[in-house]
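User: Fold both of these, please.

Assistant: Here is the first one.
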Amino acid sequence: MGMNEIFSNVKLKSKQFCCGNKNFKIDYSDDLDAIIDQMTNEQFEEDERFPYFFAVWDSGVLLAEYLINNSLSLQGKTVLELGAGTGVTGIALAMNVDCRVIFTDYEEFSCQLCHHNCEINNLDNFETLVADWRDFPEIEENIDVVICSDVLYEKKQVAPLFNVLNTFLQKKIPVYLADPGRAYINDFLSLVKDAGYSIKASKEKDMKENKLLSATNVYVIENS
């Protein structure tokens, strides 16, 4: 069975969220072990394809809350999301601010899931793009802000993520990254500091009733 067929057979759940003053719905799965059980060893070992993207991670919701609460001027802007997963962060932004979101992920099915979740929330000003950080595609559209949340699961992801973000930081495009304290966040931040970029951090907690289990750190990275 191919990967897309496995992913297509996953039974999705739905959950309501509230960010800013908007409610929205995300379809997702939290039974990641059951998904892995359907994969062959060869399929799983190909880039260690753990299906992280099916879950809604608390950091994604808290990053959206941070961006909305800090009144960032995103109206009419284009937001690029890396490792978009279910699309929860970009969707929360698009629901509250008149912005365009480009959802990107390594997994093609993640992009399909983002598209699906945008449609069930009646969003249309978005695009999805399959993108490998090791060979990131050129994006012709002007990007105003880059966002990503809970994306540093493996050490091998640190350098590729930094390299992608570096291309935007060199153009003075700010990056907002949320991380709950994964093992490799400090390795990533060391690369950022060594490159001379500024980092501001804040601890964010659930101030709504989304029933999130953890807090997360939001890092604002800029070429100042």
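And the second sequence with its predicted structure:
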Amino acid sequence: MLDKLPPLPQPKPENLIRGWKNRAEGKAFEDRLDRSFAYYAERGFALIDKTPEPFKIIKRLEHTRFIGCFLKKAQPDYKGTVKGGRSVIFEAKHTTSDRIEQDRVSDVQADYMTKASALGARCYVLAGYKSGSVYRIPWSAWADMKRIFGHKYVTEEQLKKYQVQTSWNDLLLILE
């Protein structure tokens, strides 16, 4: 029964193109973060790693298809330690829109960030926009978005004070 999957519904071409573009931009954002964290690790300033998705392949099918499942809800994207022993946690979000909604951080991720913050970890949401700008928003500000920004989303204009500087070689100075 598992070998005979029904054909996948065919999405509209414009949705396919939008999805490819969004995934490509999200991947480029993640690659930029990875390069930036590698820079800090190479210099001994911090060790920050990507949290792997808890996913299991149950059965391989023909070509590139498989049956799999997520084992549990995803945790924040990056966790690590900066020189001196302080824990840091980052949830990365990228948008091709003019805003990022607060609920893009899942309940599981929000709970983790809140508990880690209470233990003394520095927790942030890294928000990347289509402009190429990146913002490091403290978890306390993200969690209290409605009161601080007046609504449950943020625009680039509202995040100016959280903007991450970029080095001459396009590395993000996230820990500065």
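DSSP finds four helices and nine strands in the chain.
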